[in-house]
Amino acid sequence: MTTLTDPPAGTFRLSMLLNDTRYRSLTFQAIALLVLIAAIVFLANNLMTNLRTAGLNISYEFLGSPAGYDINQTLIAYDSQSTNMRAAWVGILNTMLVAVLACATATVFGVIAGVLRLSNNWLVRKLMAVYVEIFRNIPVLIWIIIIFTIMTAVMPGARDYLGAEPKTELLFGMFAFTNRGVYAPAPVWNDGSGLVIAVFVLSIIGIFAYRRYARNLLYATGKLLPTGWPSLALLIVPVVLAFFIMGQPIGLDSPDVLANRFNLKGGIQIGAPLIALWFALSIYTGAFIAENVRAGIQAVSKGQTEAAAALGLRSGRIMNLVVLPQALRVIIPPLISNYLNITKNTSLAIAVGYADITATLGGITLNQTGRAIECVLLLMLFYLVISLSISALMNVYNNAMKLKER
Amino acid sequence: MKKTVFLGALTVAGLAAGAAAAGTLDDVKARGKLNCGVTTGLVGFAAPDANGEWNGFDVAVCRAVAAAVLGDPAAVEFVPTTGKTRFTALASGEIDMLARNTTWTFSRDVDLKFTFVGVNYYDGQGFMAPKALGVSSAKELDGATVCIQTGTTTELNLADFFRANNISYQPVPIETNAEAQQQYLAGACDVFTTDASGLAATRATFEAPGDHVLLPEIVSKEPLGPLVRHGDDEWGDVVRWTLNALITAEELGVTSANIGEMSAAAGGNPEINRLLGTEGNLGEMLGLSADWATKAISASGNYGEIFEKNIGESTPIGLARGLNAQWTNGGLIYSPPFR
Prior knowledge:
Chain A is mainly alpha-helical. Chain A has helices at about 15-20, 20-55, 85-115, 120-135, 140-155, 195-220, 230-245, 270-300, 300-310, 315-345, 355-370, 370-400; strands spanning about 175-180, 180-185, 185-190, 250-255, 270.
């Protein structure tokens, strides 16, 4: 027989804070917390005191004053007389642009490489292993610089395209690939182009409706309708018809090679820094995603594949219908952190002169106004907000995909 | 060349509890070595040669100060600094003086709490373009792509210039001079802009310098000079008057060739006598030996000699004296009298 001796209640002594295991851990945590708070207070106080002695203060007034510098890629209207706040917004949009582009392409690269790493073909499997190992084991900054340098050195200069008898002709009369970036024609929206766009949106809705109908029909009757070519037809035919019925309202503004002696003018320019940064981030993070995808696929029991094969499914369908949906549960959580990595790695943009938020607010504005602490605090806030938003969105997706336990 | 990075100074102001400001002269004497901040390497201004010896226009100022204070032009520890680290290094006391083509501006003098002791090179922002483009004026640059070193006053001057002339351009912000050079040579930008002296120095390192022209427009004032920490006036005086001694020596015709003879005994010109310490006690007032200026001038010659040897027209950099001629020759180089 065992006797349980409860500690006598109500006899709390101060020494128990150290001697009693029930309180000891709390004591140490409380002490650690106090030390941490004291350290932060000390540092903050030190900073404020020294700033005051140096005659400086924390102020965000500089955000409203003119920035005074120009930016090469602006998604919103901006000139050197715009405010520092506006410059920060230009940077934020540029950051988000390259982050979204890189997340999309990294996912494509990653899924393809991850699936091919498990290929039965020895050569393909080894090639993908080489890709993954080379790209993820060299720092991304090096990749960004290498790709940018190669682009600069290998691509023809913009001036090669200029003049009445250029050294290099425009591709199809509208595309130019130079070491300053890619020049492409820009669409010109004339009267009636709204209708064409409306038709285009309606076709996309139509495609979804058709696919839904096909799926319901499959579940209800077992009849399998083709979805590939009807979707394509729905996407193209109505838009093309509308385009010609309305009298070709959408024109193209090709880059002009005769505008001046320095640059092509007109059209859309996708700058070399954006391309280098986008490609480097995609291919680098793609290598990590490939490993996640491989892990996810390998986490699906081999019995599932065999069972699907026994039911007569072909290997493409096994991958799409059986393996990948289950693998996604394993893939998504690390994928979130890869997306966050891409977003944070965009801050390396300054290495190639891409005007992201770190380059505008955290670079030129900081240098020119001297408001280092204010700018860095704003930068931290921005990256925190954007990362938490991505995290939240991806968690919603994860919750939708994860194993439903009922 | 002129990054207005306040970050470093702020860090120091914020975190270090104020480095000892006074007594730099005594510190240098006790140490037996002058810690002088220079660039990480700009040919002609400050760069180590094949033997690791630092040479250049800014380096000569360091050597003159070391000679004046310690009697030995070789007693200098050169500390390479970047545009970002230079002010931190000076404010924290890591270096005793900064001689690194730094533009004298209001905010650096007043806000960052430094003392500019003078100007050893009057510079201005210029443009370099390939000859093949056939550009003869910066006003013809409408639509051009321009490489700039980011974080410098250059960026703002450039925006102002193009706006004032109502022409457009595309900026390519580049972190370092070397990278900008590479982009420019590959044709990723049409024009490269920075201080005119920096352009000349950069061009001198090209394979075919003759294929590139410097455009005539100078779009800003960039007075470059050595600086010290605010609040130590004795030390500031030593550096200021060492620089002035080099300038006055040129004005009075004292050169490294004739200084031995001139300083041996008092001559006919009282100002030369005062400068070289054969008359009066100027050295004592500074807290230095009587022949301080003699040693400073002997180190690498007078201002004109230093200019000609490092960046003058006989060197690959090939800068004309221009604004940097003595005031007696129509330039701006002018030293207060030694009296």
